[in-house]
Amino acid sequence: MAEEIRVRRRKLPHWELSGSVYFITFTTTDEGNLSEPAKEIVFESIKFHAGNKYDLHACVVMQTHAHIILSHRAQARTPMLPVGTGDLNQSVDSRFRLAEIMHGIKSYSSHRINQTMQRKGKVWLAESYDRGVRDEKEELGKTELHPQQSCESRTR
Asked: How many structural domains compose the chain?
């Protein structure tokens, strides 16, 4: 089976190749910085589906943005088939889309941050920056951005 490349575009181009590792950055709106409790909510949100929807390699949460290095995982999806055609138990193997993953992280964290801070409004900019990581050396370089604030150091 050939590798499937998905391409979508909003303001930025987004390319997804099955089995790739991605470096993703998402940014807060202009309204302000993330407090320490808000950063903890973002960490929880990032780690919630790790091991299920994606493999989390590293993450960093800063006051105005977060970085994640992840690879999306395969999921079994049952296709919609017309009645009487094909095997209904047949599933199509695909990957969780980066857009689905990021929507989950950003939606959950923004609701929890607004609830905790007793406020309303957007927390994150609508679009995230993502790019494929070329090799392990590049991935390791990105994880050393701010090691004192990384997901790895938070779990120790």
From this structure: 1
CB crowding 1-22: b at 16 or more within 10 Å, else e: eeeeeeeeeeeeebebebebbb
**Are 21 and 33 a contacting pair, CB within 8 Å?**
no
Give the bridge partners for 16, in sequence order: 6
Which residues constitute the domain of residue 136? Answer: 5-75+88-154
In the chain, which ranges are E strands?
A: 5-9, 13-17, 22-27, 54-61, 65-72, 74-77, 92-95, 129-132
Q: Which tokens in the block code for residue 129?
A: 């920056």
- Read off the pLDDT of residues 90-103 as tens digits, 9 standing for 90 and up: 434 477 888 889 99
What pLDDT, in 10s, does the model give residues 118-155? 999 999 998 888 777 766 555 455 555 544 455 654 43
The two structure tokens encoding residue 86: 């094909």
- Residue 148 in any domain: the answer is yes
Residues 6 or more apart whose CB falls under 8 angstroms from that of 86 comprise: 79
Evaluate whether residue 24 is within a structural domain: yes
Q: Out of 9-18, 99-108, 145-154, which region has the weakest mean confidence (pLDDT)?
A: 145-154
